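User: These chains co-purify. Model them together.
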Amino acid sequence: MIRVLNFCCVAAMGLTILALYHISEQTRIARVQLSQVEHRIADARTKTSVLQTEWVQVANPARIQQLAEASLGMSDTATLQLSSLELLPRRGDAPLGGAQMHDANAQVPASAPAQFVKIAAHTGM
Amino acid sequence: MNPPPTVFQRRIVIGAVICVAAFLLVGMRLVDVTVFTPNVRQIRSGDRPILSRADIVDRNGELIARNLPADDLYARPELFKDKIRAAHELAVATGVEEERLTQLFAGKHNYVLVARQLPPDVRTKVRLLNLPGLEYQADSKRYYPDGRLAAQVVGVTDGDDKGVSGLELGLNRQLRDKPMGAADQVQTSLDMRVQFILAHEAKASLDEFHAHAAGGLVMNVRTGEILAFVSLPDFDPNTRNFGDGNSSRDIMAQNLYELGSVFKIFTFAMALQDHTIHLGEEFPIGNGLKIGRYTIHEAERMPATLTVQDILADSSNIGAAQIAMRSGAVRQRAFLTTLGLLSPIHTELPENASPLYPSNWGTIETATIGFGHGISVTPLAFAAAAASVVNGGRRITPTFLKHPSDARGEQVISPETSATMRGLLRYVVTNGTGKKADVPGYDVGGKTGSAEVVGPNGRYMSGKLVTSFCGVFPVDDPRYLVFVVMDRPHGTKATDGFALAGYTAVPLAGQVISRIAPLLGVPMTPVTVAKENS
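Assistant: Joint model of the two components:
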């Protein structure tokens, strides 16, 4: 009886050793895989940062202006601003019927020739 | 018949079986690990995180400078099947001289450096060659996606990733040894939109007037934040080529200029603060002001008398000299000291210069400094002092770091004097030499300055001018100061050959203000047709 008991104990010990080894091995593999994933994340971040930098480069105002002038025939002009949003009347304040509407006017000198460009925006639309 | 095994023999057999089983298990595991399990330890060199300098971004989070992977490429020539072909292909992919590579590969060295700091796109080209024997040494390179746009103010780093100029040097401690990530960045006060506009307009003026140099800055007069800081000629920080028309000298922070009439801002602020003049008072101008053996003349023809307002608007040297002399040398020196003009200005920018002023500050010096001659300061120092005059009279120190809260310090002139000065500056733009900076709707105030440049022999060079314009807007409650400088501009046919500030620096500042004011959300004063026509 005592032999059977001893055998069972030794067998249980052997199985436990195997199980522990297996778990230990799985843990080691998981740790390495985690490290790999972390490195992949870092790699992806690096690639993202490269792409962000490239985006800043291609969206550079100087480049956009150059392309706009070369491809679209656009050119620098005086900044026109009709009025600030705060100064415009709100929809509810707009005059009704045949009432005279207010004009928000601004005149700025055009680039060339020396003329005045008149801009008039009717409010209350 | 064999006798049955004894107990010991049975135990030996059992032990042997257990040992064999154990060895079998170990053997199976070895086969499993070495043959069937992929090599989990293998990590590509490109997968490592980059530990390096933090990013530099502008006030809106726009990227200005960042470290990117740029590995060094090495080769083991003995592994190439065809060394000449390998040299040719690598030369095409990396841009390295083919002859140098051919010589290196034919040499006795087992391990040779092919190229340093390969950008990602070049590295991809090299990978596509599928050449054996290539290895990469992890490295990174500082990259500036906007190129020249902010080269002078941002500066560059050296091969060891240490800042050597500009904010890269000034903010070196904050930038170093930080891992790359979204939160690891230093936010500057620069606004790259404003920076682009200022750089673009300054370059256009530099080319139009064939100036030796040009520069400008935009500053928030309440917080001290510098939104744009341009110095031309500049350089490409990515290639770092300083030859042929490129320069690493920041004229706005390093050059000392006698700025001329723009200095009258301080003369008038001092006189108003001391109540030595009052608006409407008339001063005799005449044909010259004799002080000892010196005679001060006007740059242009002036009436016999001028009011205080018109002395500033028409930029009369004789009038300004008389006003300065009313306060006297001691008071003038103390006032300029209070504004910080007689000591180097300290900002995050390491480039700096100590002002030059007379050691013997007598009557003639008081008179000439009254109209901006005989004292040399950096444009940055001047702008800081001018901002203190118009921002309610409180001292402000410029900063290149984002700092949106009010940073005004001690009171240097009274708020009333500051308000009067703003009115006078507006008068200069509406009725004086600064008319070309009168941007409709933004109520610009400002002062022009044209000063002859001091030559190598210490004498003023006739016809060689430094022109400048200091503008503030909106003048009733200023938020921004624009200061532009042009070094030795030449007159053009359009300016009838004149190169004075009113023809060169003022239009430049006007263009800049008209473009940046809407961007910065500056409230616009309604402009009526009647007002414009008048």
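Residues 101-125 of chain A have pLDDT under 50 and may be disordered.
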